[in-house]
Structures are given as C-alpha cells and as structure tokens.
Design goal:
Elements (H helix, E strand, L loop, with lengths): L2 H16 L34 E9 L7 H8 L3 H7 L14 E11 L2 E9 L6 H8 L6 H6 L13 E6 L6 H5 L4 E6 L6 H8 L3 H7 L15 E6 L19 H31 L13 H7 L7 E2 L2 H7 L13 E6 L2 E8 L3 H8 L10 E7 L2 E7 L6 H6 L9 H21 L4 E2 L8 E3 L5 E3 L6 E2 L22 H6 L4 H17 L4 E3 L10 E3 H9 L9 H4 L17 H14 L10 H23 L1
Parallel strand pairs: 1-5, 7-10
Antiparallel strand pairs: 1-2, 2-3, 3-4, 5-6, 8-9, 9-11, 10-11, 12-15, 13-14, 16-17
Helix pairs in contact: 4-20, 10-12, 14-16, 14-20, 16-19, 19-20
Length: 618
C-alpha cells in the first residue's frame, strides 16, 4: 500500500476518533501565529466536516452599543427576524440586559483551510485587529484571521475602513453526523466555566463535548476564559439554555431598572462635570495671574509653545498653604501637602527636569495622567503644583498590610487598567507619542477612590526621536526590576519599554511584593538583587504545573471568602493575570503585547471578574 495514502487514511481516522477540532487555548491571545505547516486553531476551525457549508450558531454576550436585535444582527450580519425568533425576543427594539447570552444563527462555509461565517466591521479610532477580535467580537474571531482576510497591517489601519471579519464556526464531521449531531455551536468561555458545566447547560454529554474539541475526556481538561468551545447539538439551541452573567433569577426587574437609570444619571452627571471642568479651566486665570513668562529662560523654553494656561503662584502662597513647608505636611523628601484657596494640592520642589515635565504635562489631558495646576519660581528653585492623590503611591498602598481595600481583586484590576489606559494615551493618542520610561509602583499615584494616575515624567521621551539611540539616563536601584533586557544591553527605548515595566507592576499587584529585593541571609547568592519578574517566571515553569504554585505566588490578602465562610476559588482569574504579565515580560520586544492588547485583555478580565463577584453577592 502506498505509504502516503496509508498516512492520509490514518490521519483522517485519527481526527475522527480524537474529535472535530483542536481547542485553541491561549494561542488566540497572540497575533503572530503561523499555519504554514498546517491548519492552526489560533486562526479558525479547520474545514474537515461532512459538508462544506451548513447552518451553525454562535453565542454572543450583549454589551453597550450591541444590546438590541438590530445592533447585534448588523454586527454579525445575521438575519434579525431569525435572531429574534431563536432567542424568543418579541420586541426587536428592546434593550437587552448587559452580559446576556444571545444565540446568533449563521451560515458557516469553507474558505480555504478554514470554516468561517462572514461579517464586516468599520474600524474606529484607537482600534486594531486584536481589540476587534477580543473586545468587539469577544473571541468569536481571532487577530490572525482578521489580518489574513484584510490588506492592512494590524497597526496601520486607517479609521473608517470597512474590514472583513471571519467568525469562528464549524460543520459536523462524518462521525458526529452519524451519532446524531446536526449543529455545532461556538460557545464563549468565561471564568468558572468547565466542560461538565457547559455540557449541563446545553444538555450534551461531557465526553462528546470534550471529543468535539480535541480533548480526551471532559473531567480534568483545562479551558481558559475568552476562548471558544464547539458544542455538538442534536437540535437547535434554545433560548432557555442561555444565561445572563452576573445575575440570578432573584434579581428583580425593578432592581435592573433602578441600576440602569442610576447609571445613566451618573454618566450624564460626569459629562456635565467634565464640560464644567473644561470651562472652569479656561477661565480659572480670573482668580489669579495669567502665565506671564517670568520664569527662568530654560523653563520658558519648556512651555512657551503651549497654548494652555498655567497659574503662576507666588512663593508666599505656597508657604502659607503648607504652614511654612512644615514637617507635618511633608509627604516625601521634596513633596508637601498644601491647601491653596481651599484646594488640597501636592507641591513638589523640582530640579533640572522641571522644564521637561512642565512641557510634557501641559500637552496632556487624560484622567490617568497626573494633573499639573501651576508653577512657582523662587530663589533659583522651581515648584510644581499638582493635583493631590489621597492614597499616595501604589508602592505604599501595596505594602500597607492592613488595608482592607487591598484585599479586592476588583480594586487591583481597576488600578492595572487605569495604568494601562494612561500608557495607551501616551503611546497612541498624544501628539507626538511618548514613552514614559520610568513606570514603577512609586510613580503611580492613587486617588481617594483608588483610581490610578501616572506621574513623574522627567525621563519621558518622544517616539519621534531615534528609537535606537543609546540613553544616558542612569537607572536608580528601585527601578532596576522595571527595565527590559534591551535597555540594559544597549539603551534601546521604545513603547515596549513601558510594556515591560507595566508587566512588573502587574506582578506587584498580583503578588503583593516589591519588584526588587535582597535575598535571604541563608541564600547561596546572599547580597545579590532578586527581580520579582525573574522569580515569578522561574516559579511558573511549565504552564501545566503553574496552578500548583499559585498559592505561593498570589498575595495571601487576595484570598476571598464567601459570606457562608468557604474560600472562593479564584485560581483562573489569578492565572489569567499572570499570563498577561508574562506576555508583557517577553525578552524579545517584538513578542510583547502592545498596550492596546493589554487594555483589551484587562477589560475582558475585569468584566468577567465583576460578573463572578456579582453572582456570589446577589
């Protein structure tokens, strides 16, 4: 028998025995996969079914903008009448609850190596292939497959372009059809999901569900949030099999209405406050002096091209506001808490980096970047007046062992997301774009509501400069754990420098430990510095055994207990965050995530975490 023919037949039956498709795992979180050696689940599902085209179903979860039959059917290029019918929605204009699972009927067809259901999407400012795949379509497509189906590079897509988006779907194989499977449903996995749980939801056997996705069994196989599974069905899925995440049946319609109205009111109030703030900022000089360029020439050069107004404070005002720069108002070696006309501020005495910091901060206007109110020159020194951050630095907050607020995963994820959004603004929306270059927990400040803002821009540099030029900046001891290999080797600085530093900050949030510390006295390498990132990476080792080491890595303060007394299992959440951190700490800059990918991933993790916590507290 022809060896090639024998091998082809063997592989065909092997696929039939093992299952319909292979589970993608976290491959879909990387935009640089390849399928040169054969079809890869990192793209879409392989075209290996009995038919080249069939009816299939997807699960989509409602989100703002996509919460009506009309909006969802347009996003998915689905028949709105059929979508309303299968989901038992009588009013097509009804606004559906947030995070409600909606069944999407699609036509699934072979296109080359892969099955896909075709739709299109118009790109908005700040989006890319990764955010479209994982935020807009929630994992129902992949970054790699969108890139394959469009002519634009993923970071050079002009806003307003209509992109072709292939959705993940598949048709039953011969063996599945023989066993009675008529449809395959693409299901989006969330935290706490498991193969037995999903099989129970759709009334299929765990073994069939496992085999359909290339697993050997349904009991111990691990699945990750934000990925998909194929569910083999003997008949159309029912609306009664869908869920609304974060809600239980006991949650009344009255509560939902109150929450919606309250949220809308707060959103309108915040918009009004923001507009009022902008108007106040434009006219605030009426209460003081306008910028009159009385500062030294070097500082004038730093801010002379800025259109925004800065208040020039007299030194006497700062003295009065700080009680003569008293020790009681001293926050650090050069920073004091003060009160200027009823406003609590932070006053910092600056050195040579003052002109640069003033110039940079006057260009920025973002919630997650520290606000600069004004300046003062006195006796050759420059004083900068910033907004006051009640909870101090992230470093202090993490080290505060008794802080009740530090025991919440939600708080830590929100802080990480705030920092990521601040970096996203610097990297993508500031003109010109900037690299902060000194991201660490000491330079991240927290408000009374635990909202994070990035501070200390003395080392920041524009990306318009030569990226490969060696930097002459000397790193301080406390920052060493935040600097990437390429900077330490040749001084190379890019936006991926900040991504690496963010990965270390995220590790600090997860572990509750410092980025750099000394080894124990009994260690063979006594006296040498230990990087938190190195320790965690070595502790994770083989990903299959990483879960067993979570208790060692995770901050023990994050062990959540239910009101009934049992410990809530949050290993999946911790593992997701650790994987995200490790993806930021890749030694090769090109393999690190972009800040857009980080923001998108954190937003999905935050949404899943809030849904999970709501289920425990309702």
């Amino acid at each position: 028998m022809n060896p090639f023919l024998f091998m082809s037949v063997f592989l065909f039956f092997a696929i039939e025995i093992v299952g319909q498709q292979l589970y993608s795992g976290d491959l879909v979180m990387n935009c640089d996969n390849t399928d040169e050696t054969g079809p890869s689940p990192a793209f879409l599902y392989t075209c290996n079914g009995l038919k080249s085209s069939c009816s299939a179903f997807l699960i989509f979860r409602t989100q703002p903008l996509y919460n009506t039959v009309a909006a969802i059917s347009k996003l998915m290029t689905a028949d709105p009448t059929e979508l309303a019918r299968i989901n038992n929605i009588r009013d097509s204009n009804k606004i559906l609850n947030l995070n409600k699972e909606v069944i999407i009927p699609v036509t699934c067809s072979c296109s080359g190596k892969y099955y896909q259901a075709n739709t299109s999407y118009v790109l908005s400012m700040g989006e890319n292939y990764f955010t479209i795949a994982n935020s807009v379509y929630q994992g129902l497509t992949t970054c790699d497959s969108i890139q394959r189906n469009n002519v634009y590079e993923r970071y050079n897509v002009p806003p307003g372009v209509k992109l072709q988006v292939p959705l993940r779907c598949a048709c039953p194989t011969v063996s599945q059809t023989t066993e009675g499977t008529k449809y395959l449903l693409t299901y989006l996995i969330v935290l706490k999901d498991s193969i037995p749980k999903i099989s129970k939801q759709f009334k299929v056997s765990s073994q069939n569900l496992a085999l359909a996705n290339g697993f050997s069994s349904g009991e111990s196989d691990e699945i990750s949030p934000n990925t998909t599974l194929l569910v083999p069905l003997r008949s159309e899925p029912l609306s009664s099999q869908t869920r609304t995440l974060g809600q239980k049946g006991s949650l009344s319609k009255k509560c939902i209405i109150i929450g919606t109205v309250t949220g809308s009111f707060l959103a309108i109030l915040l918009c009004c406050l923001f507009v009022g703030y902008l108007l106040w900022k434009r006219n605030r000089a009426n209460g003081g002096e306008k910028l009159k360029w009385v500062l030294p020439k070097d500082i004038q050069l730093g801010i002379a091209s800025v259109d925004q107004l800065l208040k020039i404070y007299r030194f006497e005002e700062l003295e009065e506001g700080t009680d003569g720069f008293s020790l009681q108002n001293r926050l650090s070696a050069s920073v004091y808490k003060g009160s200027l006309k009823g406003r609590i501020v932070a006053i910092k005495q600056m050195g040579a980096s003052a002109p640069k910091e003033v110039k940079i901060l006057q260009k920025f206007n973002h919630f997650n970047l520290i606000g600069l109110y004004g300046v003062c020159e006195h006796d050759g020194a420059c004083y900068l007046v910033y907004e006051f951050m009640e909870n101090g630095s992230l470093k202090q907050w993490i080290e505060e062992k008794t802080s009740q607020e530090s025991r919440s995963w939600n708080n830590r994820i929100r802080i990480a997301l705030d920092v990521a959004k601040g970096l996203q603004y610097l990297h993508n929306f500031a003109i010109p774009a900037y690299v902060h270059k000194d991201i660490n927990s000491s330079n991240i400040l927290l408000s009374k509501d635990l909202r994070a803002k990035i501070s200390k821009f003395g080392l920041a540099r524009s990306t318009e400069r030569d990226q490969n030029k060696n930097s002459s900046i000397k790193c301080r001891f406390e920052s060493k754990g935040y600097l990437p290999p390429e900077y330490l080797e040749d001084g190379s600085v890019t936006t991926k420098t900040d991504v690496y530093a963010f990965g270390v900050v995220l590790l600090e949030l997860i572990t509750g430990r410092k980025a750099v510390y000394e080894r124990d006295d009994d260690d063979d390498d006594d006296g040498k510095e230990v990087m938190l990132s190195e320790e965690v990476l070595s502790s994770m080792g083989d990903e299959k055994h990483a879960k067993g080491k979570l208790n060692y890595l995770i901050d023990p303060r994050l062990q959540a207990k239910h009101a009934l007394g049992f410990v809530i299992d949050q290993d999946e959440l911790a593992l997701c965050l650790l994987k995200l951190s490790i993806a930021c700490l890749e030694p090769e800059p090109s393999r690190r995530l972009s800040i857009n990918e980080i923001v998108s991933t954190l937003m999905k993790i935050q949404m899943d975490t809030q849904s999970t916590e709501t289920m425990f507290t309702v």
